[in-house]
Amino acid sequence: MFVDRVKIHVKGGDGGDGKVSFYRAKYITHGGPDGGDGGKGGNVVFVGESGMSTLMDFRYKRKFVATPGEPGGKRNCFGKDGEDIIIKVPVGTVIREAESGKVMADITTAGEEKILIHGGKGGKGNQHFATPTRQAPRYAEPGRKSKEYDVILELKLIADVGLIGFPNVGKSTLLSMVTNANPKIANYHFTTLAPNLGVVEGRFGDKFVMADIPGLVEGASEGVGLGHEFLRHVERTKVFIHVVDAAGVEGDDPVENVEKINRELAEYKEDLLKRPQVIAANKTDIPGSEENVARLKETYEPQGFKVFPISAATNKGLDELLTEVGRILREYPEDIVFEEEYEEYDEVKVDQEPFTIEEVEDGYFVVTGVGVEKMIGYTNIDTEKGFAFFQKYLKEKGIIEALEEKGIEEGDTVHIYDLDFEFWK
């Protein structure tokens, strides 16, 4: 079963809590703090897997959580870091944040790794909070919570050549004749309900991947038929083979059909028509097709689209068609990469991050929060300018007001990350 769009939930591992502990030994009853740090939580890592061609596995497992870090121990023992969770996805998978629809990652090559979520940082043990005036701190940092998201996995096949055209024109037959693929073939519309991939080996040693793109009908770009479901699969295709029924078995005009499909491509994404395209006029073994082949050549070859009369069922003309496609691919610029102009997902900005305040001991207040820690990390508080920015941040963020609501008094101690300072207005 072919599945190319699923929604899953991912979460990094939470950091382990720091330990509150004091050294004890024979004849030593009041040793110093020796609580160890908690371990870091595991990351959520997506990896491109060349052997996968569908997202079907994610229909049965939809929640992925990395292992949390272990808490710290006595005698300065650090907690063990949590293990990363590795999520394998097909090459060509786009990962979107479900609520905003913005792209968090785009896996385009086999073996490519993307850390989508970093595990939570482990909390510091109480050994870090000892000062000359506070030699027995009974506080240790809790481990940081990791982020979690609902994400959409969206597969866009990556192929060198894409077979496009209306249903029942012979795309699946052509694919089966020139590749190792075994698509379902029958004489009715929408036999193909999923993209099929095959590998072509040309007479000159060319080897390329060919995909049969189903679901293209008039109005596909507006969601008619299976259009929206499968149009995404043409976006990363270098060359199009536009297959038409030159015999007009269905009573359609092949010249008009080419125009209709190209119009749908352009309406979906305008630059698709700028990619190389050849026309395969199929079913020329049926009498009466010669006139339509001549009309196709007269109409489209002046526009730069070469027309090849073929019969996929009897292998007629396939060598000439594949030779031309192989030539186009050999001359294709290697530096061209087909990518959407994605609106990338941004992490929550520092000034929007929540914070918490806790009075862990009388007159000792601890401020925690990812945004606050980031601010401390990129601010040099030892300089006059940096300290002024630090004070401004605390005020604008609302931390000063929140401390006052907690009952802080002048001379009390405030702890932020690895910084202790006395509170004065």
Quantity of strands, as a count: 18
Strand-and-helix sequence, N→C? EEEEEEEEEHEEHEHEHEHEEHHHEE
**Going across the major beta sheet, what is the strand order?**
10-11-9-12-13-14
Tell me the name of the CATH class of the largest domain: Alpha Beta
Helix content: 10-25%
N-to-C terminal Cα separation, in Å?
67 Å
Oligomer: single chain
Give the tally of structural domains: 3
Instruction: Give the DSSP E fraction (strand runs of 2 or more residues).
Output: 15-25%
**Structural class by SSE content:** alpha/beta
What is the CATH superfamily label of the largest domain? P-loop containing nucleotide triphosphate hydrolases
Written description of the protein model:
- Its cofactor is Mg(2+).
- Residues 1-158 form the Obg domain.
- This protein has helices spanning 171-178, 227-230, 254-268, 290-300, 318-330, 370-377, 384-397, 399-405, and strands at residues 5-11, 44-49, 63-65, 85-90, 93-97, 103-107, 113-117, 148-155, 159-164, 196-201, 207-212, 237-245, 277-282, 307-309, 356-361, 364-368, 413-416, 419-422.
- With 425 residues, it is α/β, with parallel strands linked by helices.
- It folds into three domains: 1-155, Spo0b-associated Gtp-binding Protein, Chain: A; 159-330, Rossmann fold (3-Layer(aba) Sandwich); 351-425, GTP-binding protein OBG, C-terminal domain (GMP Synthetase, Chain A, domain 3, 2-Layer Sandwich), CATH 3.30.300.350.
- The protein is elongated and about 105 Å long.
- The termini are far apart.
